[in-house]
Amino acid sequence: MDSELDTGAILAQATVPMLDDDYGIEVVGPRMGAVALSLLPQVFARIAAGDPGDPQPTDGVTWAGHFGEDYATVDWSQPARRIHDQVRAWAFTFALSPVVGPIAELDGKRVRLVRTSLTDPGGDARRIEAGDGPLWILGAEPLD
Question: What is the pLDDT of residue 140?
């Protein structure tokens, strides 16, 4: 660990797959926590051995920052997957971005999409035609 954001040496790492219906930290967090806990024996062994960890690469690395206006508006002509991933990405901003998103127009009104699905979940989900097929809206908040 060092004083900068995400720049310290790496003692262990793993991937946690994102499933199509994963929304928010309350869903992904437990899986991330379980994987993190499983790495601790390796981390502690490296620390005990005096291993400083592997340096992170510096070539081509930048902090992406918060989402901007260019990613805040939903374009219904885009593929359903792209819109679905856009909605999911905004769910992980924890409302820290100065920009509100993702914003879409539904029935002539602006809404912030909260959750979508690539498959029909039934119930009250609203089907919308995206650029390459259907997308279901499971949650939206009015903006106006």
Answer: 94
18 residue type, one letter = M
What are the CA-CA distances from residue 124 to residues 116, 120, 136, 137, 138 (Å)? 12, 10, 10, 9, 7
* Residues 59 and 74 grouped into a single domain: no
Work out how many domains the chain is built from and give that number.
2
Q: 131 pLDDT exceeds 70?
A: yes
Percent of the chain with pLDDT over 70: 99
The reply to whether 76 and 138 lie within a common domain is yes
HSE-up of 66 (CA within 13 Å, CB side)? 13
Q: Could you tell me if 30 and 54 lie in one domain?
A: yes
Which two three-digit tokens encode residue 48? 């005990």
